Structures are given as C-alpha cells and as structure tokens.
C-alpha cells in the first residue's frame, strides 16, 4: 500500500510540476525538436524588424513560411525528413513568432512581400525553393509570381487567396462577424484547433495551455495584421495566370479553413502543376501527418 501511495504521489507531483513549469518545459521541447533537424535559431534585421529564422540541413535551399497566427516551429514535425535533402530556412514573418511587432508598421501583402524579398537577398540566396501553408502559401505564390527567376519551385499547402473557391466553415464564421483565428479564451482556442485539424495531433495538456496562452497574448496584434493583409485580398487566380513555376499543391479534403475546391482551381491555372488532395486531412498537413507530407514533397522533387 505504501508503494502504491508513493507512485500516486509522484504521479500527481509530476502533473503539478508539468503545469507549474510548463513554459520552461515547452521551450525545452521546442529546442529539442529543432535539434533533431539540425536547425539553429538566427536573426537578421530587415526594414526595422529583427526577423527570427531557423537555418539548417544540407542541399538546395528551401524557404518555408508559416500560416496566420503561427510561427516557424509549425514546420518542426516535417523538418527532420526535409533537412536531409535541403538547407531549410524557416522564417518568422515580421509580426509573428520571435520577429518584431511594430505598432507603427504596416503588415499588408505588399509590405510583407517586400520584407520577404529583402530577407532572401540579405541571406545571399539567389534562387530558392519556396513553400508555405495558408497565409504562408498565399505569400509564397505571390512572391513566385513576381520573382519567377528567383524561385525554382513552389510548395503550396492549402494556400489562402483562391477567391473563387467554395466558402469554408471559417468563412461562414467571418460572415457572422466572428474570426476564429483571433483567440480570446480557451474556448476560442479549442474551436480553432478543431477547425485546423481533422485528427488533432497529440500535445500534452500543459503544452496546449502554453499554445493557448500565446494565442491569447498575440490576439490584438494578430487582428491588426489580419485587417491589413486581408482587407482587400489579391486573387491567386489572377496573380498566377501564366505561371510556369514547378509547383506542388497539397490540400486536405476535410479542410475547414480553406475549402479543398481551391486545389482544382489552382491546378487549372498553374499548368503542369501537381495537385494532391490528401484524404481525411485538415488544414495543416505538415502538422497532422508530417511523414506523409514530407514524402509527397520529396517524391515531387524526385528525392524519394
């Protein structure tokens, strides 16, 4: 009985400690995940912003861009497979993650594209593979359209900006005056996670709390960015007309943020593109099924 009591005590103490020290443990877990891919945290100053990014791996350069409200570590689960074949540059866009947030700066599409261009030039990268999810896919596609000579291929994971796609559940919320991407409380956070994933990846409860707290803390600035970036969105259907950049389009058939009909629309516009609809998949393939997502990309690049 004493042994059982000790085990129960240690278990309860462990759970309490996990929550009490959740942020140091969370940050340590992030560092371990980066180390698995050989990624180092670096910074560069662009347009008055300190831009944080991860750098590591070997091979041709693949620049990856996160979605709205996310950050560079959204690519952590897929990076170990990719870093064996590519030098990965994974950016925190200005206004997100560990990069500068400036109340006096603009974060509209043109401003962010200019900063992305300056970032790539500052790192001395002449020609890159470019990939992004959601807002990151939107910016990737627009960057590729404007600088085709500087982009060897593009990887679009459920990109925003396909204006003729069917309305999603997310857009139904927007029509009612609610934005699920802006988190006020734990209930909002649970709703957002439910919209992003078909099968929610396992994350310890203490770490879920960290993610929730971070989203709540960033809400006000995220609202500023969302309004500036999407007040008058550009149409990928128009911007990518005539695009011949080598392209892979990945989209989940259960995506509730951006409807999967966008995949077919984009594949018609980008001639010769590879379009794959992933079954039973939500909005973030690189988080929900990282191994499968990486393997699809490596096959696309003839590296698998």
Number of helices: 13
Question: How much helicity do the residues have?
Answer: 40-55%
Give the beta-strand count: 8
Shape assignment: globular
Top CATH class: Alpha Beta
CATH architecture: 3-Layer(aba) Sandwich
Through-space gap between termini: 55 Å
Give start-end ranges of low-pLDDT stretches: 5-15
Mean pLDDT: 94
Which structural class is indicated by helix and strand composition? alpha/beta
Strand content: 15-25%
- In the residues, how many domains can be counted? 1
Order of helices and strands: HHEEEHEHEHEHHHHHEHEHH
Q: CATH homologous superfamily, by name? A: Alpha/Beta hydrolase fold, catalytic domain
| Rg estimate, integer Å | 20 Å
Could you characterize what this model shows?
With 304 residues, the chain is α/β, with parallel strands linked by helices. It has a single domain (22-300), classed as Alpha/Beta hydrolase fold, catalytic domain (Rossmann fold, 3-Layer(aba) Sandwich). 44% of the residues lie in helices and 17% in strands. It has 13 helices and eight strands. The protein has helices spanning 2-20, 22-36, 79-82, 109-122, 135-146, 169-175, 186-196, 205-217, 219-230, 236-239, 261-269, 285-288, 290-300, and strands at 40-46, 49-57, 60-65, 86-91, 128-133, 151-157, 246-252, 274-278. It has an eight-stranded mixed sheet with strand order 1-2-4-3-5-6-7-8, sandwiched between helices. Strand 7 (246-252), helix 11 and strand 8 (274-278) form a beta-alpha-beta unit. Helix 2 (22-36) crosses helix 8 (205-217). It is globular, with a radius of gyration of 20 Å. The protein starts with a helix and ends with a helix.
